[in-house]
Amino acid sequence: MRKWYEETAENGDVVISSRVRLARNLRSYRFGSRLSDEDAVRLVKEVQDAAPLVKEKDGKRYFLCNVNHLSEVNRQAMVERYVVSPTLAGKKQETGLILSEDESVSIMINEEDHIRIQSVTAGMDLEKVFAEANFIDDILSEQLSFSFDDRFGYLTACPTNVGTGLRASYMLFLPALTMTGRVEKLSEEMGKYGVTIRGLYGEGTKSQGCLYQVSNQKTLGRTEKEIIANLDCIVDQVIKQERRRREYMLQAGYDEIEDKIFRSYGILKYARQIGVEDAMTLLAQLKFGADAGVVKLKEDVNLHILMMNIQPAGLQKLLGKNVGSSVRDRARAEYIRNKLPDIERGQNS
Amino acid sequence: MLCDICHKREAKIYYTEIVNGEKKEQHLCEECAAEHTSFQMKMPVKGEFTLGNLLSSILQGYYNSEEKKQEESANPVCEHCGMSYEEFLKTGLLGCADCYQSFGSAILESLKNIQGSELHTGKRPKGYVKVKEVSKPVAELSEIDKLTIRLQQAIEREEFEEAARLRDEIRAKKAKEEEGVKKEGAPNA
């Protein structure tokens, strides 16, 4: 079965994916920081007991696992595929996961909150992923009793999530705004509208390969629809700005850009060892070139998937063993060489 | 660049303070920043910069400035899970759902600071009405709060005539309240 990230979608030149996350807590347990180990085990079991109901009503195939029992590499690889959050992967206590076969829906158990329902899709479609997460929330609430307050809404461990418990986010590919040093300014402007922009794997991580996550800051006092509409409105502006910059860059210095992209391709195609940051930057330039029609890929290869697969743990999983970083750098270079399609000058030349 | 205050040590912190709409910018070293500003030393300079850290620094700023005198004697502790308000400030994480009630007015104020709102208008769990009878709300809803919720629901159902009526009712009630405050002659501190 194809994973969600293997689908292609609208606005794919800027918006890589759309994701929502709903935070929920059960009435009968304390929040994470005060949860005993025994209660953590009970909590995970109680939520996973609702999985058959989810399967029945949603019609998808779901898998269960206890994340803390998995190996370090497997956990890290799940973080790199956005299936679980770094917080969940790093917890020593009992943690659980209910994951749909296409990995578009994941229900994390005993994260910062008892339950985090996540739904994700390729391209720009928050409405669809919200509908999915909302549906799962309804199903779970048939069997589980959530902490809810008349005034404050869904109660969460951190007051930054209280109310709707909704964090909606887009993953954006912003090569032109990054290359022209506009992202910082953009971040300030977005802050005024309650929208934050940050690196690839969420809180506290830095951007790689011109990929960013943009999400709502506030969760209380607005309906779910309003939160999503506000984010859509801001992201529409960002898309326009990014496209305008791309056009401008191509008009102003086509030859330089074409040269840069072919040089990047050259390194990717012939390097014998390459670090993840380097590889991400070069792949970002190639993706930009392909999206903008500066170069044409002779085979249809999803460069975003390539970017995901060359992350340290994903690579180790492909290798099937734990290796040091120099071995990994060689393996990464080889993997890229094998996957990279031939290219030619694009129709814009 | 050298520190704006001591002119000796290297400035590592770019500090912006906005007081009554006036913006003041300074380049400071860690020592002077700790001494002369409400800047939290441990936070962004060393260690990890996370939302939790940021949050607790916002809360602490608030706590130090306005509530200090009132709260100093009483550091409320949640009866259900034993978490104290000070502990919460350190991590930004509450211990249990009851904490929202235990830390009452302090939570209410910090929610206004963080969220710019203190009233949930979004989704309610199915069958919530039943639960409502047994659980006590954290704070009683005012007439205006209830009308605001109904207004949101009317907009979602696209019943705009009803929404307009509710909006006017809320405006009228708010105007009345403000008048009431003026008549008493003393602004609410």
- What is the assembly state of the chains in this entry? heterodimer
Structural class of chain A: alpha+beta
What does the main sheet of chain A amount to? 8 strands, antiparallel
CATH topology of the largest domain in chain A: the name is Creatine Kinase, Chain A, domain 2
H/E order of the elements of chain A?
EHHEHHEEEHEEEHHEEHHEHHHE
If classified by CATH, what would the architecture of the largest domain in chain A be?
2-Layer Sandwich
Strand order of the largest sheet of chain A: 2-3-4-5-1-8-10-9
Binned, the helix content of chain A reads 40-55%
Work out the radius of gyration of chain B: 22 Å
With strands numbered from the N-terminus, the spatial order across the biggest sheet of chain B is 1-2
Taken in chain order, the helices and strands of chain B follow as EEHHHHHHHHH
Tell me the total number of β-strands of chain B.
Answer: 2
Radius of gyration over C-alpha positions of chain A, nearest whole angstrom: 21 Å
The CATH homology group name of the largest domain in chain A: Glutamine synthetase/guanido kinase, catalytic domain
Low-confidence stretches of chain B: 39-49, 66-73, 130-135
Q: Termini distance of chain A?
A: 38 Å
Low-confidence stretches of chain A: none
Number of strands of chain A: 12
What would you say about this model in short?
Chain A has 349 residues and is an alpha+beta fold. Chain A has helices at 37-48, 51-58, 72-80, 86-89, 126-143, 175-179, 183-192, 224-270, 276-291, 303-309, 312-319, 325-339; strands spanning 15-24, 62-66, 96-100, 105-109, 115-122, 148-149, 153-154, 166-173, 195-198, 211-216, 295-297, 343-345.
Task: Report on the architecture of this protein.
The complex is a heterodimer of chains A (349) and B (189). Chain A is 46% helix and 17% strand. Chain A is of the alpha+beta class and 349 residues long. Chain A has 2 domains: 1-11 and 21-163, 2-Layer Sandwich (Creatine Kinase, Chain A, domain 2), CATH 3.30.590; 254-345, no CATH class. In chain A, the strands form 3 sheets. Chain A has an 8-stranded antiparallel beta sheet with strand order 2-3-4-5-1-8-10-9. A two-stranded antiparallel sheet of chain A has the order 6-7. A two-stranded antiparallel ribbon of chain A has the order 11-12. Chain B is mainly alpha-helical. Chain B contains 9 helices and 2 strands; from the N terminus they run ββααααααααα. Chain B has helices at 30-36, 51-65, 68-73, 85-91, 99-102, 104-115, 128-134, 143-156, 160-184, and strands at residues 13-19, 22-28. In chain B, strands 1-2 form a two-stranded antiparallel ribbon. In chain B, strand 1 and strand 2 (22-28) form a beta hairpin. Chain A binds chain B through residues 25, 27, 30-34, 112, 134, 137-138, 141-142, 145-155, 157-160, 162-164, 166, 194, 203-204, 218-225, and chain B through 48-52, 55, 80-83, 91-97, 99-100, 107, 110-111, 114-128, 131-132, 135, 137-139, 141, 145, 152, 156.
